[in-house]
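Hi R.,

Here's the chain you asked about this morning:
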Amino acid sequence: MAVDISVEKDNGVLKEILKEGEGDEVPAAGCVVKVHYTGTLLDGTKFDSSRDRNEPFSFELGEGRVIKAWEIGTATMKKGEVCVLTCAPKYAYGQGGSPPKIPPNATLKFEIEMLSWTGMDISPDKDGSIEKILLRKGIDATSPNDGALVNVHLVGKCEDKIFEERDVQFNLGEGEDSGIIKGVEIALEKFKNKEHAKLKIKSKYAFGKKGKSEFDIPPDTDVTYEVELQSFEKTPDTWSMDNPQKIEQAKILKEKGTNYFKQNKLTLAIEMYRKIDNYIVYDKLFNDELKIERDNILLATYLNLALCYLKVEKFVDAKDYCNKALEIDANNEKALFRRGQAYLALASPEIAIKDFQEVVKIEPNNSAAVKQISACNNLKKKQLAAERKLYSNIFATKENNENSEKQ
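And the predicted structure, written out as tokens:
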């Protein structure tokens, strides 16, 4: 029995299922579908067939590369399903037809077999590492933004074995604190309210090289998640905030970053601190009182970021954030000291020692800086000794080669 599947319910696209498909999944916009089809006029005249060419036809759903009836019809098909679509002219080739085979104002029939499809690629690098397959459409047009409070139901699977199923509430960007993998967080930013989707997530956005012993998931293992976005509350956009609200949001993020730092959750701490720039770094309209508060928040944030990056051994980033702090306070002891630590770790003791010496000028009793000056001198001596040894070996080799040539 044919069913009207047109959006306007005008009998423009009638679908009759000849063979039921498998499972519950259907392709969503962005999926690449592969089908076999045969197209005929109402009198049975065949005008095209992929089967006759023995070449399945592939296209990206939602990109307007096929007639409207196909966009509607194939989006309802399960894998292995065979159906007939009866397509009114407005959903096919319209008044002009497609000469010479399809006349004007032609109603067409297509027998279509859904062979397979790949999900929508929503990975940041478009490398197929996060693939989304829609199971149920959302109910509105908005999606959660960074920091939004989301309520989701998760079902995680590895090789069809469920390893976790739960309801969880968290702020986007802080999912790690609730055991949410990065691939799910990235995907949720593209979900609509009440949407239900299956996610195929490569290991780099799942549990990575460590795996997850708690779930018996080995290193470098891909997983799938079924995710339902039950509800969410968006965070206010920066453009909608006045300056006091931006300051308040920066304070909230700074406090979150500090709490994560105390828990040794350095990745989350860095993420919270880095978000502060989005609210207060570019705005030049702060008045005198708010500007002082803004500068104090930025200074503390940059110092904290430098410390975090030192701990995770990203020394160039640590140096860069020390430079940002010194732009606000050129004689800041912590910024100078941490920049010296970064330069020392980058094997640049001749630069690092200058920062530690500046610290001692500002605070002569800073014993830690004095020790670091000694460490810089020791490293310089080791580097000099290594250079001398290298050059002596080079000269010795050169002399031996010259003697050999003379003989």
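The radius of gyration is 31 Å.

Let me know if you need anything else.
M.
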